[in-house]
Specification:
about 35% helix; 8-stranded mixed beta sheet; Aspartate Aminotransferase, domain 2; alpha/beta; 2 domains; 3-stranded antiparallel beta sheet; 14 helices; Aspartate Aminotransferase, domain 1
């Protein structure tokens, strides 16, 4: 058998499902209604942003929400609203998207980059404990790939030390921890609607809060320092215009009706792939396990750990040639010179370093295919791992 990279036939010649999916009829109707109304901005009197915000707060099990232009700004606004600022430290995991750290810098605080659990790759509570200083003000667990961080020990640690908890739920729409929705487990939670996410308007984000005072402070940050119910030109605090538009909200609100079905579909694909991988000789590829307490994984993407001795660059190139493109995943945040140059502090992170060398991702669009097509992923992996040394 010849690899496609070396002139053989690829395992898969048909395209994977596109992302985002085509507009459904309710999205099309609501977007058209908003466009024709002329009420496009969040302050012009339309109701769609408010409806979306209320629906997402309910989804997260909390009473309050604020829709924003993107999740990076959402993390920044959540930190600022919770009182995190210049001189404070915020603990973030090493295996996450760079925005988790840059949002901290934007708030004037110092990202403290700590290691993740070596099995599930989520923020390690022990690493948080080890990194605490007198300047630590907050911790930012990330619900990576659609599964929940192990929140109970993180919340308990935060309560003991008087820390704020901001959940980066950018990848975890609809995920649950001990049957409780993520996003509403800390002081604030932030979702993303960027183009790759499980719900998307191209860009966008949303902050949810449990506490009314926290909500009002976050709202002020996102609305130019105004106060809820206050004067339009009254700006008692410093704030910014971080608002989502009605047009974006019109793309997102109807999506909530199909979110559960799409999560089920992705989980079915992941389950099928796990069964397929179990048949590989010596099981050289395995699913990264869910953290303790995960009761619903929204499967934004699937992380695979490759234990076989194969060059990583070759694996990615060969899999793409077989019609099964995988992604390399995150480099450890502590290796990014731009962050450390701005003052970020990086603790030793051997688990994140190992993950960057051995973990690859199956993207969300692929997980939306028929579960029977999970066999394509397993077949391509078998082919590449078996014949990678044979030109």
């Amino acid at each position: 058998m010849t690899l496609a990279l070396h002139g053989g036939s690829p395992v898969r010649a048909t395209p994977w499902p596109s992302w985002p999916p085509p507009l459904d009829p309710r999205q099309r109707a609501l977007v058209t209604e908003v466009l024709e109304s002329g009420l496009w901005g969040a302050t012009q009197g339309g109701s769609v942003v408010a409806d979306l915000t209320a629906a997402f707060a309910r989804l997260s099990g909390v009473p309050y929400g604020v829709a924003v232009g993107n999740a990076t700004l959402g993390l920044f606004a959540a930190l600022k609203g919770l009182g995190v600022g210049r001189g404070d430290e915020v603990i973030v995991p090493a295996y996450t998207f760079v925005a988790s750290a840059t949002a901290v810098l934007l708030a004037g605080a110092v990202p403290v980059i700590v290691d993740v659990d070596p099995l599930d790759l989520h923020l390690s509570p022990q690493a948080v404990q080890d990194a605490l200083t007198s300047r630590t003000a907050a911790v930012m667990p990330v619900h990576l790939a659609g599964s929940s961080a192990d929140m109970d020990p993180i919340n308990a640690l935060a309560a003991r030390h008087g820390l704020k908890v901001v959940e980066d739920a950018a990848q975890a729409h609809g995920a649950t921890y001990h049957d409780r929705p993520v996003g509403g487990l800390g002081d604030a939670g932030v979702y993303s609607f960027q183009a790759s996410k499980a719900m998307t308007a191209g860009e966008g984000g949303l902050i949810v809060c449990r506490d009314q005072a926290d909500h009002e402070a976050v709202w002020s940050v996102c609305n130019l320092g105004r106060r809820l119910g206050g004067q339009w030109y009254g700006h008692p605090e410093v704030g910014w215009n971080l608002r989502l538009t009605e047009i974006q909200a019109a793309l997102l609100l109807p999506w909530l009706d199909r979110l559960d079905d799409e999560i089920d579909r992705r989980n079915a694909f992941c389950d099928a792939l796990e069964r397929e991988l179990a048949h590989l000789p010596e099981e050289p590829v395995s699913l990264v396990p869910q953290p303790p307490g995960t009761t619903r994984d929204s499967r934004h993407l699937l992380m695979l750990r490759v234990d076989a001795p194969v060059d990583r660059g070759f694996l990615l190139t060969a899999m793409a040639a077989e019609g099964v493109p995988l992604e390399s995943g995150y480099p450890p945040l502590g290796t990014m010179a731009a962050l450390t140059a701005e003052g970020a502090r990086a603790e030793p992170c051997p688990a994140a370093t190992e993950a960057a060398a051995s973990v690859v991702w199956v993207r969300q669009s692929m997980l939306m295919d028929d579960p029977a097509r999970a066999a394509d992923v397993a077949e391509a992996l078998t082919k590449v791992l078996t014949y990678h040394e044979k030109p």
